[in-house]
Design brief:
The protein has twelve helices and eight strands. By secondary structure, the chain is of the alpha/beta class. It has a domain at about 95-135 and about 160-275. The protein has an eight-stranded parallel sheet. Strand 5 (about 250-255), helix 9 (about 260-265) and strand 6 (about 275-280) form a beta-alpha-beta unit. The longest helix is centred in the middle third of the chain and has 24 residues, at about 220-245. It starts with a helix and ends with a helix.
Length: about 350
């Protein structure tokens, strides 16, 4: 996952923010959220070199600062156990549709998505080498992902599964990356438009009577777009059944707003059977200021109809150690009805102090 974050980070440009002015209505909204108890999270990778004593101190400091759960990139009984002993939830952060496992690609190349150019992700990785996307329409892929979730959740020290890369490849990159990859994506380009494998084409044709590959403008077809939304929805909701059977939680890291997610990665996350959602409200990826984080949260909360919690994802490297801006980001998220935040990046003592004070004053 750190590769993915770095991929999206590379071309980002690094002001002390003006004080946020809160209205009576926003203060009332914040008060209402506090009654439901804020929860805050961290995305991180377990390091096998960490000692038990180190983990005890670290996770106790997280808990004291207001962090309530950890999203681990990988399985480590030691890390999960120490997190739980510290009073934290411990979830497995799992790459879902993006699977660059060489053994899997060699054994099942037919499981992988095919671009509108007719090239499989096994043959040509879009953008970066670790972008190897499975096709969500294939029953074999669906079964594989359900079995994977079941294996993860069968560990009694795992509290839940956190889905990432639960989408199609980016048909449009965030604008901040266009210059780095020398791309002007003012339209959907064939080499980044997925999936046009035989399974997808046949299933869509059975519904619509049309083959998307021979359409003049498949990017303009609303029914073809809907087919792909529903293909990912189906994968998520099948995994959700597995989680419920295991009596474990299921959450997901998603693109920042429902509109952005549908438009650039075919991700329809407001129709997923989740326990919580974690939009990656990384403002600089979209050349927006900190205030926009509140706008993104507001949109997501609106379309979720308060059915599940929304935790705003904050990308710490973008703040360039400006902790006043980190505090402002936490404030605008909570005051737009986020139930808390999730942090990606180095969790320093200063970050912990900032989080503790920000959630106290939000």
């Amino acid at each position: 996952m750190s590769n993915r974050r770095n991929f999206l980070k590379n071309s980002l440009i690094g002001t002390v923010a003006a004080p946020t002015i809160f209205t009576a209505a926003s203060a009332s909204a914040a008060s209402s959220i506090k009654k439901k108890k804020l929860k805050n999270w961290v995305w991180l990778h377990p390091d096998g070199k960490d000692t038990t004593d180190e983990l005890k101190l670290r996770y106790q400091s997280y808990k004291s600062a207001g962090i309530t759960g950890l999203l681990f990139g990988g399985l480590s009984e030691k890390h999960y156990t120490e997190a739980k002993l510290a009073g934290l939830e411990a979830h497995c952060w799992n790459w879902t549709m993006n699977k660059g496992d060489k053994n899997l690609m060699a054994a099942h190349p037919d499981w992988y998505a095919v671009s509108r150019e007719g090239k499989s992700c096994v043959e040509v990785a879009p953008y970066v080498d670790y972008y190897r996307w499975l096709c969500p329409s294939k029953p074999e892929v669906q079964e594989y992902l359900k079995e994977e979730a079941e294996r993860i959740l069968s560990n009694d020290w795992v509290d839940g599964i956190h889905l990432d890369y639960i989408r199609y490849c980016d048909v449009i990159l965030p604008k901040n990356l266009w210059s780095q990859y020398k791309i002007e994506q003012r339209m959907e380009l064939p080499q980044y438009d997925f999936c046009y494998c035989n399974t997808c084409r046949e299933k869509y044709k059975a519904i619509s009577g049309k083959d998307p590959l021979v359409m003049d403008y498949p990017d303009a077809s609303l029914s073809w777009r809907l087919y792909r939304y529903e293909s990912i929805n189906n994968v998520v909701n099948q995994i959700a059944v597995v989680a419920k059977q295991q009596q474990k939680k299921i959450t997901a890291a998603v693109f920042p707003t429902p509109e952005v997610a549908r438009r650039i990665v075919r991700q329809d996350w407001t129709n997923w059977n989740l326990d919580a959602v974690f939009p990656m409200t990384y403002n600089k990826f979209y050349q927006e200021d900190v205030k926009w984080i509140g706008d993104a949260v507001k949109e997501g909360v609106h379309f979720l109809h308060d059915q599940i919690p929304l935790y705003a994802g904050l990308y710490l490297p973008d703040f360039d150690n400006d902790y006043q801006q980190v505090a402002e980001a936490i404030h605008v998220a909570i005051n737009n009805k986020a139930r808390g935040v999730s942090l990606f990046g180095h969790i320093s003592e200063e970050v912990l102090k900032t989080l503790k004070e920000a959630i106290r004053t939000a």
